[in-house]
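2024-03-11 09:14:02 INFO worker-7 job=invfold-0412 stage=load source=structure_tokens
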């Protein structure tokens, strides 16, 4: 590992205080390039780096690695390790609307869950919780009961280690209480498997897939979409979702624009006229 790369990793660990997972991701991305080139990353030309990364056909994966490289070069320029501020261009990715479900579809599916046992009550409560909170599945699975205070949710294990507090619909809190009362578990985590251990990401995915046919993340998109369609301010949605940048939240405005377009197409007489 080059001295510059070692200094960069120390910087994002201590000064930027990034999570261990983020630091490890940067390290893996950048060390891979150095080891492939057998040279310090700072000495490589753009074409050399792109040649090494050309094996990644998935553009999102490629862009994540390019983002790591750009962050490294920015650091080197600021620390005067380099006289030039190199920046590699990202691969273009077609914009797609996030997949979501509407309220009626979710509630209709929930009504089919057999809640005569604690497993059914858990599955029902989990889906309600995800839709009512907009929490990431990683945040959800780290939840302890003390994180729920009346109708407020304290998300302590957020992405980027940024805590936030969001309102939680009463129906979700009631469902969680019913599930916990019936399960008899008194564990560190709210969401448990049938043995009483912590519920895994794979199990959570199987639950939402079984009843809704989607991943848990689609419920987060559904939460945001419902708020935007209901007229919520974009910055409020940003805070509720825990997005560090408003640009990440702005993808949901495309849904709002599509709603407006569909309304005009359905209701305005000129939209139905042929040229």
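2024-03-11 09:14:09 INFO worker-7 stage=emit residues=275
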């Amino acid at each position: 590992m080059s001295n510059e790369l070692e200094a960069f990793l120390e910087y994002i660990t201590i000064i930027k205080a990034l999570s261990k997972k983020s630091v490890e991701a940067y390290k893996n991305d950048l060390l891979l390039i150095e080891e492939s080139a057998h040279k310090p990353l700072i000495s490589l030309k753009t074409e050399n780096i792109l040649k090494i990364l050309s094996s990644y056909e998935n553009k999102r994966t490629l862009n994540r690695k390019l983002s790591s490289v750009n962050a490294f070069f920015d650091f080197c320029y600021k620390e005067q390790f380099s006289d030039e501020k190199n920046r590699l261009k990202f691969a273009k990715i077609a914009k797609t609307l996030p997949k979501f479900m509407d309220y009626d579809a979710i509630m209709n599916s929930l009504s089919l869950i057999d809640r005569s046992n604690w497993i059914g009550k858990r599955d029902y409560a989990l889906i309600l919780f995800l839709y009512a909170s907009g929490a990431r599945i990683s945040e959800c699975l780290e939840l302890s009961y003390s994180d729920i205070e009346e109708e407020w949710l304290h998300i302590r294990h957020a992405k980027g280690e940024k805590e936030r507090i969001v309102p939680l619909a009463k129906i979700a809190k009631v469902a969680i209480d019913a599930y916990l009362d019936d399960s008899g578990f008194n564990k560190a985590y709210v969401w448990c498997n049938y043995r009483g251990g912590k519920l895994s990401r794979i199990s959570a995915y199987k639950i939402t897939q079984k009843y809704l046919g989607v991943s848990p993340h689609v419920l987060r998109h559904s939460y945001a979409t419902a708020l935007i369609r209901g007229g919520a301010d974009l910055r409020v949605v940003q805070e509720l979702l825990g997005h560090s940048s408003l640009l990440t939240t702005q993808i949901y405005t495309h849904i709002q624009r599509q709603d407006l377009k569909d309304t005009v197409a359905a209701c305005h007489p000129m939209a139905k006229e042929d040229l």
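2024-03-11 09:14:09 INFO worker-7 stage=report msg="Residues 3-78 form one domain."
2024-03-11 09:14:10 INFO worker-7 job finished
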